[in-house]
Amino acid sequence: MQITEHIHALKIPFQVQINPSAALDRFVYVYLIYGEKICLIDTGVAGSKETIFEYIKKTGRDPRELSLMILTHSHPDHIGAARAIKDAVGCTTAAHAGEIPWIEDIELQYRERTIPGFHSLVGGSLEVDQVLQDGDIMTLEDDLQLQVIHTPGHSSGSISLMLLPDRALFSGDVIPLPGDVPMYDDVLTSMVSINKLKNIEGIKVLLAAWDEPRKNQAAYDSIEAGLQYLQRIHEVVINNASAYSSASEPRWCRSILEELGIPPAAANPLVGRSLISHLEYRGINNLLKDI
Fold first, then answer.
1. pLDDT at site 290
2. What whole-number distance in Å separates Cα of residue 93 and Cα of residue 126?
3. pLDDT of 10-49, one tens digit each?
4. How many domains does the chain divide into?
5. DSSP assignment of 164-210, as one string?
6. Which of 27, 54, 236, 245 is deepest in the core (most CB within 10 A)?
């Protein structure tokens, strides 16, 4: 669907294997920026190339016009189709330095962040051509610029992007959805990054990977809701901190999710790592005051 004069959003469904016998239905948004050339932000999971290319053709453009692919971070639902797309059209690939090791070596990512079904979600490693850092301005053409905003927490090299003419903010997975499964490396770093986005003036549309497009005040409301949700998770974790031990971690994680209203079956080592990150700040009751 078309969001602004330049931006098109494409919703890609997929499944995450949460345990050997159960899968969780998910989706991810990828975004196309149309100018003289096409810029793609994130790629979805393996097999998404055909969906993206068909959409480009349906809107009267040619996939060969895709000249730049920006990866907001290295997780499978964002880089899954990147190798296939790059092989097909030879586009330049850009990402933050903190994500490059896992993009260029997916087996390294699998060893360090093992998830069920990983290899079914990622189509292969690929080389990153352009290293991005906070504050970079990427000129897609004379009147079309993207500003890079380093927003770590979900992962160390997560970035958000502001399309300046449209005042459209692409936030990747930085902002959690209330009620969704916790998934981040460090809770306080995540909250600092979300607050950084909250303080950007003049956002006309928020384009997250996990949520529908949010416009004007609804964009700021969504950012604030993400902050409040992380604070809620923190309160639950801290209230249950005394019950944690490495031996009790799986049971402890399931009990935290249940108290948050999330199916306990969603518990896995990555969710556990997210919840454990709160324990580093167990002496702080209100993390909102520290951002």
1. 83
2. 9
3. 999 988 776 667 777 889 999 999 999 999 999 999 999 9
4. 1
5. TTTTEEEEET-SPPTTSPP--S-HHHHHHHHHHHHT-TT--EEEESS
6. 236
Sign of the C-alpha dihedral, residues 210, 211, 213, 214? Answer: negative
In the sheet with 214-215, reading across from the earlier edge strand, the strands are 137-141, 144-150, 159-163, 168-172, 205-208, 214-215
Residue 290 lies inside a defined structural domain of this protein: no
pTM: 0.95
CB 46 within 8 A of CB 39: no
Residue type, 108: L
* Contact yes or no for 36/141 (Cβ under 8 A): yes
pLDDT for 239 equals 96
Of 71, 79, 63, which is closest to residue 124 (Cα–Cα)? 79
Structural domain containing residue 26:
7-229
282 within some domain: no
Per-position b or e across 216-243, b if 16+ CB within 10 A of its CB: eeebeebbebbbebbbebbebbbeeeee
The answer to whether residue 32 sits within a structural domain is: yes
Give the pLDDT score at 247: 84
Quick check: is 220 in a domain?
A: yes
The 8-class DSSP code of residue 113 comes to S
**What pLDDT does residue 110 have?**
95
Domain CATH code at residue 106: 3.60.15.10
Q: Which amino acid is at 39?
A: C
